[in-house]
Write a structure and sequence with these properties.
mainly alpha
């Protein structure tokens, strides 16, 4: 499995935790963590030469 796929799995786990979070602060924290894992996955894809070095300015987890 690619490293970026593992990072995306971590992001998905964070989103699942956010759904079950008790309270808005915990929800927001897990969502930020999901965005961070996704950013790491995208960066790893770039490092692996799978995507262009130009930024793709998309928000996957609003």
């Amino acid at each position: 499995m690619k490293q970026s796929d593992l990072f995306r799995e971590n992001a998905e786990n964070c989103l699942q935790l956010a759904e079950r979070a008790e309270g808005r602060p915990a929800f927001r924290r897990y969502r930020r963590m999901a965005r961070a894992w996704t950013a790491l996955a995208n960066e790893q894809d770039w490092l692996d030469g799978e995507v262009s070095p130009l930024p793709a300015r998309t928000r996957e987890f609003g």
